[in-house]
Amino acid sequence: MGDLYALDFDGVLCDSCGESSISAVKAAKVRWPALFDGVDSVLEDWIVDQMHMVRPVVETGYENLLLVRLLVESRLPSIRKTSVAEGLTVEDILENWSKIKPVIMEEWDENRDALIDLFGKVRDEWMDNDLATWIGANRFYPGVPDALKFSSSSIYIVTTKQSRFADALLRELAGVTIPPERIYGLGTGPKVKVLKQLQLRPEHQGMKLHFVEDRLATLKNVIKEPELDGWNLYLGDWGYNTQKEREEAANISRIQLLQLSDFSKKLK
C-alpha cells in the first residue's frame, strides 16, 4: 500500500533560522520601537548569532520575537523590563524556556495572537518588497529538494509555520510543488490532531505511517496518544535539537534517531 510521510518543515526540510531571526528583529523594532532604538548593526549580528543557539526551544514562530527581546534585555541592563533577563545564558534558555516564556509574556503584557499576526505581517512585507532576499535567507538541507521531488511516498507537511511561507519556500527555493491540501500549517490544530486526521482517511488505510520531526517534545506528545501507536517516529538529528535531547531520544524505544542522508534515502 505504500508509505505516508508526515514531515515537519523548519528543522527537517528547511533551515529557516537566519530568516526567522532577521524577521524577528524587524518585528521587534515595530513592536517595541523605544527599546530597540539602541540596537545597532553589531548588536543585531550578535542577536542573530545567539538565535541560532537558542532556536531548539522555538515551537511557534512568534516565540522568536520574545527571544530577540530577551537577548537584548540580557545584554542592555538600561532597558531591562523583566526579572529573568539578568545574568541569563543560552544554557538557561535551553533548559528553562517553558518556565521563562509565561513570565515574560505577563511582565511585558504581550498577546500571543497579536505577536503571531505581527510576525506574519513583517514576513509578508519582506516577501512583497524583496522576495529574492527573503528566499535567500532560508536554505533547504542538502539532498532534501531532490528527495521530495522524486519520492514515491505520499508526502504531507505538518508544521507550526504559516502555510503560505512553507508553500513559497517549497516552490521558489526547492522547486517542489506540494498541493495546498497536503500542507497543514499554523492554525490547523496541534500536530497530534493532524496525525489522527491523516490516519483516518480512507485512502490511507493499510499504508505505513512515518512522522519526522526535530522537536523531541512533539514526538513525546505523540507517544502519549495511544491512538497514534501505528506511527513510526523519527527525530532528525540535523534539526533544531540539542545533544542532550538526542541522547534522551536514543533511549526511547518508539523514536528512531535519523541522519540526513538516511532521511533522503527513505523518502525515495
UniProtKB/TrEMBL annotation:
BP term (GO), one: SNARE complex assembly
GO MF annotation terms: SNARE binding
Taxonomic superkingdom: Eukaryota
UniProt gene name: LOC107922027
Entries under PANTHER family matching the protein: OS07G0418000 PROTEIN, UV RADIATION RESISTANCE-ASSOCIATED GENE PROTEIN
UniProt protein name: Ribosomal RNA small subunit methyltransferase G-like
CC terms in the record's Gene Ontology section: endosome; lytic vacuole
Organism: Gossypium hirsutum
